Amino acid sequence: MCRIVRKNEGMDKRMYPTYELYLEEPTSQGRVFLLRATKRKRSRGSYYAITSDMDNLGDYDQRASDTKYGVLGKLRSNFLGTAFNVYSNGRNPFSGGENVNEPAQATTTTTTAQMSAAEVEMKKMKDHKNKSLPVRQELGAVIYNPNVLGLKGPRKMTILMNTMTSEGHMVERRPTQVKDTLIGRMTAGDTTDLLVLRNKSPQWNDDTNSFVLNFGGRVSLASVKNFQIVHDNDLDYIIMQFGRTSQDNFTMDCQYPMTPFQAFAFALTSFDAKLACE
Predict the structure, then answer these.
(1) Average pLDDT, stretch 33-53?
(2) Which part of the chain is the Tubby C-terminal domain (predicted)?
């Protein structure tokens, strides 16, 4: 059982909040820090860096080495906030570092002429170091169905993951072409080694005049962000659930085959405004 705490004090933090994931210990009423995510500034879509370092991510600078901040992976969305990709830390194989959900020409980049001498040198050092890194591993993807003004009811989301081996390990994929990414394969109808999960459809409750889900007492406030993740073959096996308990506190629970890192990244996708979904 885990808890996510949103920290958004101050003008800057309201635009670019940080999120911290804690493991709850019911027996001692305590909690253990696991992960932290911060939203990158000046990005065309939502872009989060996720680290296990509790202290050094507040001043995260994308031009600096991710090793400095202990970055484990990243989450990035398209402009509309309807598609997200989750990656481990590593080299981005796509030219220009563009988002795989966006065409290359749509990406806003900073030219060398716009950088200071120090920034140019830092970028050269980072580019040189990145070339020695392995290509990043794709850990998951999330797709939200378009739903303008919410006229089609509650949010509908699909989570894509690589399947598990007989030994219980996730199949490792490091795509170097857009067509080989999870979303690219799903779009092309290639479901080889692809695990497709969906959010459980809430049921209408006449007493509360709202859609509801049974979170087993783990969620106390209604929110469009609340969701449960299941596989079509077993709607009673809740692989992940996420929901609000107060203004800036949320519970997050997950189990096999999803890891806490993946679940944390998937939960982060629920926080962002989605232009085509609500």
Answers:
(1) 86
(2) 2-272
